[in-house]
């Protein structure tokens, strides 16, 4: 697939995809006309990279753990230093803390919605009520 399709399927800008390629997080081949071509597997890879970046990992660490993202996994880290392993352990623990916080927040929002809904579904309709036809949704 070309860069535009990968961009669309991953909701990632073309510029950011080129940056990922520059950082050697993804690779493309070039078609005869010079267009970048990406393998289907990079859709999932880009989503994983974005998730790791959102979790706070720098691209230099992501590059080192890329073998862990692929299946089958062939993991060999000849340059894994104690410092890198300590950094990864800290990042893993920080992610776990964020996950636990998100779960608590989600549960609080769900509890609040349940308490204030007064028998209404989350979208404001009575439980079991059908949605209004699209024609009824005109602005007034």
UniProtKB/TrEMBL annotation:
Coiled coil (residue ranges): none
InterPro entries associated with the record: DNA-bd_dom_put_sf, MerR-type_HTH_dom, MerR_fam
Keywords: DNA-binding
Database matches in SMART domains: HTH_MERR
Domain of life: Bacteria
Pfam families named in the record: MerR_1
The protein's name in its UniProt record: MerR family transcriptional regulator
Domain HTH merR-type: 1-68
PANTHER family cross-referenced by the UniProt entry: MERR FAMILY REGULATORY PROTEIN, REDOX-CYCLING DRUG-SENSING TRANSCRIPTIONAL ACTIVATOR SOXR
Species the sequence originates in: Kitasatospora herbaricolor
Keyword DNA-binding: yes
UniProt-listed Gene3D superfamilies: 1.10.1660.10
């Amino acid at each position: 697939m070309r860069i535009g399709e990968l961009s669309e399927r991953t909701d990632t800008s073309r510029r950011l995809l080129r940056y990922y390629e520059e950082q050697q997080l993804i690779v493309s081949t070039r078609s005869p006309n010079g267009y970048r071509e990406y393998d289907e597997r990079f859709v999932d890879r880009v989503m994983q990279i974005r998730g790791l970046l959102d979790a706070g990992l720098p691209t230099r660490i992501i590059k080192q753990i890329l073998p862990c993202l692929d299946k089958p996994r062939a993991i060999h880290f000849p340059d894994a230093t104690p410092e890198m392993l300590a950094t990864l352990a800290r990042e893993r623990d920080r992610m776990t803390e964020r996950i636990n916080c998100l779960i608590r927040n989600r549960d609080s929002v769900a509890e609040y919605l349940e308490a204030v809904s007064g028998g209404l579904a989350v979208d404001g309709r009575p439980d079991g009520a059908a949605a209004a036809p699209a024609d009824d949704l005109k602005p007034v």
